[in-house]
Amino acid sequence: MMPDSEASRFEPVIGLEIHAHLLTESKIFCSCRTSFGAAPNSHVCPVCLGLPGALPVLNRRVVELAIRAGLALGCTVQRCSIFARKNYFYPDLPKGYQISQYEQPLASDGMLSYETEEGQRTVRITRVHLEEDAGKSLHAGETQSRHTTLDYNRSGVPLIEIVTEPDLRAPATAGDFFARLRAVLMAIGVNDGNMEEGSLRCDANVSLRPRGETALGVKVEVKNLNSFRFLQRALEHEIIRQADCLEMGEEVVQETRLWNEARGRTESMRSKEEAHDYRYFPEPDLPPIEVSDEWISEVRASLPELPETRKQRYLRELGLSATEAGQLAEQADLAQFFEDTARTAGNAKTAAHWVMGEVTRHLKTDGVGIDQVGVTADALGRLVGLVDSGVISSSTGKTVFEKMYGSGLEAEEIVERENLVQIGDRNELEALVTRVISEQPDAAARVRGGHEGTLGFLVGRVMKASRGRANPKLAGELLRQQLRAPGVT
Prior knowledge:
The chain is α+β, with helices and mostly antiparallel strands.
């Protein structure tokens, strides 16, 4: 394996093909359900099983969702597109062909632009086309008794394929783009983003060329990558593998490969097909898709604010950091929860801190979505307001939050009932500070000796002695005053 310094003599050229299941209740050409996890072959009919004489009927909702995706990605939606038969033979493709789109896709010539730490990045979108998914082959058994079973529940599930131009130059950049595209598809209600269930997956096309040259190298496709990490790791391995071949004077073979996560490498699957290998021809059983200007206008008007636009608004209007704005803007429901919290609290920065901290921690621990979180945005906003105004300390606020969570109790009720109002009276707090200094002589001596970091320890002891009610800023101020005063022991 060649070192990175050698590999850097070559420039990777990467393009992605993203397959996204559309959020419909029924399949693209029949009324069978699309729900994941059903018993094998329980959501099938003559159409999705490819039985003779069964004719496909196009689901209008599928077209509408594809239009949404095309518009959100800046594509031109074609007024007329057609389906084609993509012919190949595989056990999970019962008809012996897949209904897809080829020469006349639904949408084309778009782009996805977004801000990164390195500046503005734009990835061009070649096309967005409709197709039906294939079934699923399930392999089981040892080497000598291996067998394969077929589940056709997924056959006919509607999806869009989003094909990019080869505008990506690094594995990490490709992973970042895939994550941002996923956020867009989820924000517009086209895809659920569930990569573990296979409703969003990616094929990566990668080639290498000597730096400074413009001609493309031999392209290798790595198929069925269903996580950002797998995509990045597969590309990292494949780039070095191809560079090794070129350094040794060997030719890179144009082929399709699979990522083996357990072995940390790509493995050959089959020689790479070209379009003519699929013998595309127009689907005779389906008429062209006619899309009116009025339909496009209706769909465009229904699009929500996109994650990148929302992020820039948070940066511009709310003064959030790039990290805060990016994380909060990615999911529409989380963004709405944050905005509702900030509106009640009157402080977007503090609201962002609480949503990204306490709320997100509970979401991960409980394994729920923001719609199931155990405290409302309005209630959280009022709690944030109590902390911001100094009625309670930040540490007390966290205690109150835990008592609120899932109980239906309001912050004000808990604070009043448990006497948690912050101690801001200097005389009352001075007595606590004096007591802590007397109980912690070594720490007090270190502060007198110039160890400022130890002051935080003493503030913590004051907070503990006050059951979290002390004003930490005032406590620190009084500690400094007393520890500078002569005669303090």
